[in-house]
């Protein structure tokens, strides 16, 4: 296996094994396997994996970007107390986007919705 595909494979395996992983965690885990790997190489591999639709990038905000294995279109619930992220698959959201598309004369290619709030665990802690 070439050096390049080894790096690419290592990064893909890390993202697959850890849903919603950030760049810091990816880099720590990649360096554990390939001590000489640079951050630039990691970013380059992530871009490549994303363009081949092997992984998805989730922009929570400018500083907070996460990666996950491509699982098709879905959305995210984000707890603002503990930063837990969970996947949301809801066909109703897709229905409502198709009518939005018609009402606003805008062709929607892709929607990535981040819904912020408090998770069950944190709301239980709050009310106790
Ligand atoms: Zn929480
Ligand atoms: Zn997700």
Summary, kept brief:
The chain is an alpha+beta fold and 128 residues long. It contains five helices and six strands.
Describe this structure in words.
The protein has 128 residues and is an alpha+beta fold. The protein has two domains: 3-69, Orthogonal Bundle (Arc Repressor Mutant, subunit A), CATH 1.10.10.10; 75-122, Ferric-uptake regulator, C-terminal dimerisarion domain (Dna Ligase, domain 1). It is built from five helices and six strands. A hairpin with a 5-residue loop joins β4 and β5. α1 (3-17) crosses α2 (23-33) and α1 packs across α3. The radius of gyration is 17 Å and the shape is flat. The mean pLDDT is 89. The chain binds zinc ion (2 copies).
Number of helices: 5
Rounded to the nearest angstrom, the distance between the terminal CA atoms is 55 Å
Main β-sheet, spatial strand arrangement: 1-3-2
Number of strands: 6
Which term fits the overall shape? Answer: flat
CATH architecture of the largest domain: Orthogonal Bundle
Q: Estimate the mean pLDDT confidence.
A: 89
Question: Which properties best describe this structure?
Answer:
128 residues, binds zinc ion, Dna Ligase, domain 1, 6 strands, Arc Repressor Mutant, subunit A, alpha+beta, 3-stranded mixed sheet, 3-stranded antiparallel sheet
Please describe the topology of this protein.
Blueprint: H1 3-17, E1 21-22, H2 23-33, H3 39-51, E2 55-59, E3 65-69, E4 75-79, E5 85-88, H4 91-103, E6 114-117, H5 120-127
Parallel strand pairs: 4-6
Antiparallel strand pairs: 1-3, 2-3, 4-5
Helix pairs in contact: 1-2, 1-3
This protein binds zinc ion (ZN) (2 copies).
Residues 79, 81-82, 84, 119, 121-122 line the site of one zinc ion (ZN).
